[in-house]
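Dock adenosine-5'-diphosphate; give full complex structure.
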Amino acid sequence: VIQCYIAPVYRDKKISGITLVFHDITKLRKLEQMRADFVANASHELRTPLTVIKGYVETLLNGALDDRQVSEKFVTVIDEEADRLKRLVDELLTLSQLESNRQEAEEPVLVLGIITLVAEEMRQRFQEKQIALELNLPGVVPQVKANPDRVKQILVNLLDNALKYTPYGGRVTVGAEEEENFVRICVQDTGMGIPSEDLPRIFERFYRVDKARSRQMGGFGLGLSIVKHMVENMGGSIRVESTLNEGSTFWFTLPKYEAVG
Ligand code: ADP
């Protein structure tokens, strides 16, 4: 998109020429569009559980309250939808904090310890789905300069996705290795994979390959954009490779502590 300004150039009170100024506003338009889409998506996601809550409350007030069994069922749904709303608002808050405060409080962090801890905390959920959770870790890796809570959250989000999008009996592997001035951590699954046309967009806010499936599993499509912001705010980068019906691998890097001091 090109914006063009035209201004006459005067000499002796006569127009002697014109000045043309071209501005490429493609990026600006794209940003404006993204912001508008974000607000529309957020509003829609907030509205859906509210509509459900309102509907059930009205039915209760219109007489269903007298039936104890029905009431309990309705209140359970209301409770679940309220939880969904809370999770959405929490994720939106995290995202806005990450977007406005790009500087993290960082310290030397041992990623191997965090990986082991998160794996132990999530092991039961993997067992329930009969998915093998394997750690493929070297004896030592250098300390990274990072915020340990954020590193934990990144791993939880990536492992949560690996668990959600891998069918029963699959395998998820977490690895870590040193790579020049960084430590690279990978989370690999043998799950459903991501179509190549969707790959470039999965880190966008609210982007989901299969909206219905993600929603059913409680997702809003915000997890990976939160992960990307966290990684980048700590000076790292993230990438993904995926083959449909075979599996996906997410890699992220964090700067070595001694490299940045
Ligand atoms: P969601 O809450 O929907 O999981 P995310 O931002 O975490 O949101 O992920 C965005 C989308 O990327 C998901 O809806 C899913 O389609 C896809 N995705 C993420 N991780 C995986 C994975 N390990 N395997 C297959 N698809 C994935």
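Observed: The pocket of adenosine-5'-diphosphate is lined by residues 161-162, 165, 189, 191-194, 202, 207-210, 214, 219-224, 248 (CB under 6 Å).
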